[in-house]
Amino acid sequence: MPQPTSRDTPLLTVTADTLVAVDFGPRTRGGPRAKGPYRRLFALPGARAFTAGNLIARLPMGMFSVSAVVMIAGTRGSYALAGAVTATGLAATAVVAPWTARLVDRYGQARVAVPATVLAALGSLALLLCVRHGAPDWTLFASYAATATTPNTGGMSRARWAHLLKGDTEALHTANSFEQAADELCFMLGPVLAALLCGTFFPEAGTLVGAVLLLTGVLLFTAQRSTEPPVVRRSTARAPLRAPGMRPLLAVCLATGAVFGSMEVVTIAFADAQGHRAASGAVLALQAAGSCAAGLLYGAVRPAGSARSLLPWCLAAMTALMVLPLLAAGLTGSLLVLAGALLVAGMATAPTMVTTMTLVQRYTPEGRLNEGMTLAVTGLLGGIACGSAAGGWTAEHVSATAGYGVPVAAAATALVVALCTLVPFGPPNRSTDSLPAH
């Protein structure tokens, strides 16, 4: 094979079809550049179509909670009520989401996701109407709880990749990396879009647009039937929660979620203490941007080793990098320096989550993949709730700077859990655990 020329530089290509394609392929003398991992990924029939629909459906996931808080607090004048309503929705999601995912595995994505999304959209619209027309407070809790039927669109997309790329560990690693980068992108843009809509038009605009995007995206996604995983109607596999290795992995997800939840609340408190609360969203967006970039790079590089052996290293890197915001806040007190520290700290997030989701796919029994991944998301949501509470308490009773110790402690906890439970544990051999070198 000809040796690469001096023009071998990574290219970032953004098109309407491929959305994101990172090309690390070598350019040979006298020939075109070889296809990079992301180009090869989206060359699969139907991949671009279901990805586009899924991204539209996933964007509202970063919009709903912010929209609900702005809408309720703006009309009722109570952040406590707004927080209680969103917390109720989070708790309801933690209970309902695994059941929804189980139905998706049993009856298919299209048959379950569409009616579940319709019910969730009606819940959002009911919340909007109750807020706008001054309905009693209990109606807000009931309406927002109905949105718990929202299907795990990210999990369904990962399930499609697992079906399309079965046996191709390199391509599956790239797909998981892309999905994590997409998660970060949506959670980075969602709150910004929600705040813009609610502030520019009317308080209910964010919730309304989010419901429309969710329903539209799910309809487009489920319409791509050629890439939908086959249904296993009578699976005899054990429940994912009882599968060997899953419970320790969910404990890691819980601790990792606490990192995200505490970092968000503490950063808002720190920016508020500096007199720049409006800038907190942009500062947090930098953390998501760092994670998004790292996720795309991680998918193109494909480090050697199994996911089980790589996870402790990812968690160790995340623990170390989470110290940077603590140092930036404590030593400088500058929001600008903190923003740079969060950008760097975020770079460990996506590789950690990609490796975690790879393990979730490995430990989950055949035919129950959506349920297994939804359990992981539920663990993350529970961790986010706990981390938010711990970070908020520390910021209020100690200081916002001290609050940055909470994500460090949560990341260290995840590392200890992985070292004590996942590393000694040797699950059955399945190809999805392998992450071969490029």
Number of helices: 18
Provide the β-strand percentage band.
under 5%
What's the name of the CATH homologous superfamily of the largest domain? MFS general substrate transporter like domains
By secondary-structure content and strand pairing, the structural class works out as mainly alpha
Mean pLDDT: 81
Order of helices and strands: EEHHHHHHHHHHHHHHHHHH
Total tally of structural domains: 3
The termini sit apart by 17 Å
Overall, the morphology is globular
| Strand runs, count | 2
CATH architectural grouping of the largest domain: Up-down Bundle
Specify the biggest β-sheet. Answer: 2 strands, antiparallel
**Looking across the biggest beta sheet, what order are the strands in?**
1-2
Question: Ranges with pLDDT <50 over ≥5 residues?
Answer: 1-32, 425-438
Verbal overview:
The chain has 438 residues and is mostly helical. It is 70% helix and 1% strand. The chain has 18 helices and two strands. The protein has a two-stranded antiparallel ribbon. Strand 1 and strand 2 (21-23) form a beta hairpin. The two termini are 17 Å apart.
